[in-house]
Specification:
There is one protein chain. It is built from 19 helices and 16 strands. It has 535 residues and is α/β, with parallel strands linked by helices. It has three domains: 100 residues, Phosphohistidine domain (Glucose Oxidase, domain 1); 114 residues, PtsI, HPr-binding domain (Enzyme I, Chain A, domain 2), CATH 1.10.274.10; 260 residues, Phosphoenolpyruvate-binding domains (TIM Barrel, Alpha-Beta Barrel). Helix 2 packs across helix 7, helix 4 packs across helix 5 and helix 11 runs parallel beside helix 13. The longest helix has 22 residues. The chain is globular, with a radius of gyration of 25 Å. The termini are far apart.
Amino acid sequence: MAEPLRLKAKSASPGIASGPAFLAEEPKAPSAAERPGAAPASRAVGGYSALEKAIDISIGELEHLAEGTDAESRDIIDFQIEVLRDPTIAEATGARMQADENVVFAWVATLDAYIGELEAADEEQMRARAVDILDIKNRVLGALAGTPIADFPPGSVFVGKDMEPSRFLAHDWSKGGGIALFAGSTAGHVALLARAKSVPMVVGTGRFSAVDGDPVRVDGDAGAVVLQAGGMLSPPLAPAQMPAGDTQTSGSEPRTADGVPILLSININDPAEIDALDPATAGVGLMRSEFSVTSVADAANEERQLAIYRRVLEQAGDRPVIIRMLDIGGDKPLAGLADLPALSASGPRGIRLLLAQPEIARVQARALLRAAVFGRLSVMLPMVTFPDEVDRMRELFREEAEKLGRRAMPHRMPPIGMMVEVPAAALMLDTFGSAAFFSFGTNDLTQYLAASTRDDIEADAGKAAPAVLRLLAQAVKLAAGKPVSICGDMAGNPSYLPGLLAAGLRHFSVAPARRPAIRSAIIGLNADGTRAAGE
């Protein structure tokens, strides 16, 4: 039997605690499918008055936390309340709003700037204050979205990068438990609180992976963390520059009647759908991130997005996952951003909107960069029309990666590919040199190719199919050997499968319910789309 893994750390609070691990970055909030019951007002975000209300709610929550606490705890909460009431914070947020920045992102940018100043300070005590401001930022975002930070089970060992003071104070430590932080500080407020309440705590363990619920021992006397056998010092690394659209296949993948292997992935809208991932599935060919980010407050919450993406990647294991950046705008609005001209029904959508509103893209880019260390992530850009759109987004990712590097936050640059759903892009696919892979979105491609409206597209799809198939065959040739896949509705319709195979497609991503039918159809066809003998 393997020996337990002992990790060296810094003691922040003495004592020894054992308990099941609570992984702080795991998503504990309800999934998108479970949240529709929330009041619409809680998910939508208005103007500055909505932010003022969220700040008032946060102050009320902090004041409630302070009731009956000791003097040290009260001082920490008073500091956070003082920051929330600081007129300079409101003035800086207001100035950003006057520059046409959305109120939520104006708030996030203001607090992020404050956090950056603290993290760059020479004194450790000042650097330790950064987590207090992060706590305030996320508390207000939670109030805006109606999704407050959930508590964790009593007796657990909290495992994460850092811990917010208010989260410590809201937890019941009477049943035991401890804290193990990848980073953290012995001079931080949580360390001070842990010592005051005799909660064993260590910091500076470095990132390690464990399964939620695994037994963990925190040794605050010796400065160590002991993991059960099989624990890992770092997350498993994804193969360098391995696009999720690659053509490697396992023995469980279907083959055509003449023996050509076909990759069969699934599309998911809600992170909860990953729980039913079939072991024989090649991976996730399309995760529509906009279904998990239902309001501007969610779009501004980097930690919430990170938790969602991490869950999907860890559940997928060593299988690739393609996450599409937010495809919002036009007829796909995001609650709380409707006041922006860019989000009118006639305004830009997809990549154009993300480039027009880079504050949205930068938050998601940071979450995706950080999530990439947990699996085989590839990022897909929506509604791309011109090559420079890919180049500009890749540069944005590079800029955010540099910022994460300066903060010593684990991250990895994932392969960045694009949806092919605009006819102009499909016809010029050979000019998109910086795209790592291509995935055909036939829903929009059909609509734009046939000049259909959203209402007419279902009736027109069948008549437009021959034109779409001809365009796909031409585009596959233009891809010049780069990984290609198809993730639109045509991929999940067996009647189109012969034409798609004949066009040269070998990677299909379909709704989970359509997977069995497509798998059965594949084995009855040759790779050129003709029926196998005897079929």
